[in-house]
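To assess whether the prediction recovers the assembly geometry, we first specified each molecular entity separately, as shown.
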Amino acid sequence: MSAGLAVQLDNVGFGYGEAQFHFDALLPAGEITAIMGPSGSGKSTFLNLVAGFEEPHGGTVRIGGADMAGVPPWQRPVSMIFQENNLFAHLPVEKNVALGRAPNLKLGEADRSAVAQALQATGLGGKEKRLPHELSGGERQRVAIARALVRERPVLILDEPFASLGPALRAEMVEEVRALHRRRGMTILFVTHHPEDAERLADQVVLLDDGRTIATGPAQDFFGAAAPEPFRRYLGKPLPSPG
Amino acid sequence: MARLRSDPRLRQGAAALAVLAVLIGGAFAGLLVEGMRNPAAALAAFDAYLLRLVRFTLWQATLSTLLSVLPALLVARALSRHPRFPGRQVILQLFAVPLALPAIVAALGLLALLGRAGLLASSLSVLTGGTWPGIYGLSGILVAHVFFNLPLATRLFLEALDTVPADQHRLAAQLGFTPFSTFRFIEWPALRQSLPSVAGLVFMLCVTSFTLVLTLGGGPRATTLEVAIYQALRFDFDPARAVSLTLVQLGVTALVLVLLARLGADTAGEANPSVSPRRFHRPSTGERMANAALIALATLFVLGPIAATVISGMSADLARLLFEDAVRNAAATSLWLSSLAAGLAVLLSLSLIRARRTLSQDRTGSFRPFRWLTETGAGYVLVIPPIVIGAGWFILLRRAADVFALAPAMVILVNGVMAMPFALRLIRPAYEDGANRHDRLCASLGIQGWQRFRLVDWPVLRRPLLAALAFAMALSLGDLGVIALFGSEQVQTLPYLLLARMSSYRTADAAGLALFLALLTLALMLLADRLGGRRR
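The predicted structure of the complete assembly is given in tokenized form:
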């Protein structure tokens, strides 16, 4: 139902203070793209431009071919999962998920069953009435995923969603995202600092440095023998110099 | 950018600033128009008496600051050296009481204790070997200012000492520091940093102090500018003189502010003492006893007037007072005026906070002045004395309308605006915290307007909003500034009635009213503390 839409940043310029950004990228529909790069390279800005939290000063952001200029975040075909603060701490799990369906919490029968299904699918069945602080870190992120499920938007953006989780939980969440993708086939963009997350999950990689897109391509290229040189340097594994 | 410009939150913030601008601008206009109308009379007011007023105002403020701040340094140090002893928490809470006490209540408490017929008068007569003259004039003003500001300064200094990292105290213990070297290398640097702010705050409070000087000053020899403004308007009917006095008062305040800013003082300090971190030293018996004596002395000094308020209040005919029509009317007037003032204060601060937050998303810098006004500028209303605003409007309106009929509006407006910076401080941290957590989430889910307020903001802000409401109400309930100018037989608040009973020497009635008023404001302050202090 929510098959993915292609995301395109066409000559997009943005800046505040000293920081200047320039992005050019085409993220294919229905694929998972990892956005990588050193801190300060503009990963979050990249996501914010797609999600609509920032407006570009020049160029065009297109989702599914449609120009997103002036479209507020909630009207874009996008769901976003943040690194933290994904949940309203004073609302129980169920309502946090339901807000993805109706921002006024007025739910119809179909909405209610969608919420229940999403909670089941993310393994949160039986925890509907819990408050966020009664959940583990991994469970909290799963609530956010359940909400993305009920929103049924064609593009899902994850801003370092696993950063605060331990290695075992991170692997578990990677599986969760993969399952979500299998079920819905949406376009997924995610930022990560961990090459292994990208390797396990991504079809595509976009590498940023100093506010620019410096390399894009299929993940197998990035993690294979033909990895672009900037990516090797980012990983700290430059090619041994000949001789 | 276009989205920002049309944001309703900016319009509300601008409206709040407009209220402040009209209130303050109107007062200035009143003063200027009157000054222009009769420049000769206004100039004639610049006489030797005015010079004496300025000198006395600054002199009493300097003495009050020294007498409050220097002992506070020692008391704060003593308290910080002993982070755990039974009753420490109670003492700290006691030190917060003067802040919550209406000035007129404290003045009455001091008179009940140290006045000519006070509880201690006979013992003091024996001690001084004569008839105890009672505290009036400079001595009364000083004792009252120290009563208010010694505990305040102590709490602020203690807070500064608490910011010293525990590791420094560990290090001092390891190196075997003597108390003196601990003071020199650890405590003094922390105290010195906050000294200009604390001294500046106390000085400002004493320069603009009105009620205490009015009730304890007595006579033209111990009068400050603020009280002289009041007298010029209420007793001498000499608006030209009031204009000159007000302008001088403003000049003095501005000058003091500039000097303090030069010294690096932040005149908008606040006291929030936490539980002190652990200490690793073992004070000697001598130091222990000296510290105990210091703390006991300061505690008695603060406790005395409070106890006297209670004792003399209890001996009043409370039952009769409570059923007296004048008292009931004043209580009702006080309650509704202060509720509305508190509502106004909360509304103004919420508008400013929301506008500021919205403006923080502006990356173009074109809203910078607006942002400064909502962020810092609004806090400066505190340094404009309410009497000055009241006087300006009194002079402006006096020809156009019956000023006394406008008393309610003036009291609500001025008290609301004056309580706004405090409400701002109570609400802003929770609002910013909530906004940081929820803004992007709400934007991505499309939770807006009323839905956002109902589902997200109200649950998070309910407690701080109510705390701010209670705090602002307590402040305005005890205020005797604007009402002293605008009050009349028709519109009386509790503090106004108290002053009237005091002036007509119905001391027992005044004491009973003071107790009543103190209980009301303390209950509100306690409520604010409960609601605002610990979330969840």
